[in-house]
Amino acid sequence: MEEHSAEFRILYRDVALKLSQHDVILTLLSAASDPERVKKAFPQIFILKTRSPEYSATEPQLAGNGTYWLNGQHVSLLIDLKQVLSALPQSNAFRTLSLYLHDTPLLVLGDATTTPY
Question: What is the pLDDT of residue 105?
């Protein structure tokens, strides 16, 4: 039980770190950023698109199938959470991993019917 608890804390920290990196990436990008270079450096970013300044969505927008849009001042990023989690070795220690945004599931990996330990 304690081993799972330590693995969970490590996984939680690593997921939080990866997700916060997206915020930093977003602030460093401009409308002139090369989408292919960004996607090559960060494979979890599926799409980088420029948008008009009057677009004002600041909250992440669910896009389905484990993806979400993260919106900045001039660009939006389509992030693939499956790619983020698959890069973390601690994710293999659990039968099920679920990520939620405001009580809405973003992603469920593994067997969603298993009971918590």
Answer: 84
**Phi and psi dihedrals of 10, rounded to 5?**
-65, -45
Return the DSSP state at 116.
P
| Contact between residue 58 and residue 69 where contact means Cβ atoms under 8 Å apart | no
Structure tokens at 74: 């001039």
pLDDT in tens, 60-102: 888 988 999 998 888 899 999 988 888 887 777 778 888 888 8
What is the predicted pLDDT for the residue at 77?
92
